[in-house]
Amino acid sequence: MSDTPKPTEINLHQQSRVLEIAFDDGGHFNLPCEFLRVYSPSAEVQGHGPGQGVLQVGKEDVNIEKIEQVGNYALQFYFDDNHNTGIYSYETLYKFGKNYDELWQDYLQRLKEAGHEHKG
Q: How buried is 29 (Cβ within 10 angstroms: 0-12 exposed, 13-18 middle, 19+ buried)?
């Protein structure tokens, strides 16, 4: 068995486009749908090898329409831009929560470097 904390509560706030997730170690995170979308673990976003990731742009208003549990280890999000191929393990979601500020700034920086202005 892995030592990865397990979610105890998952709440999707569609109006504010935020996924609220609590873990059994006391971790509690609010992850914007846009953040989850642009960091999707899918091959379409991450590429098929290191450094092959594809910068996602224009996702400020993306929302999650549906969440499905995958086994006892992951969640699958159905985004309203028809993206649904990312399987988010609990470990990934936990890391996203722990490292959110750093990851979000990295995303904003990459957008800027690519000449896109974030409208969030």
A: middle
| Count of domains observed in the chain | 1
Q: Which range of residues forms the domain containing residue 36? A: 7-113
* CATH number of 66's domain: 3.30.2020.30
> Is 120 part of any domain?
no
In this prediction the pTM is 0.94
Q: Write out the chain's pLDDT in tens, 120 residues.
A: 568 899 999 999 999 999 999 999 999 999 999 999 999 999 999 988 888 889 999 999 999 999 999 999 999 999 999 999 999 999 999 999 999 999 999 999 999 999 998 987
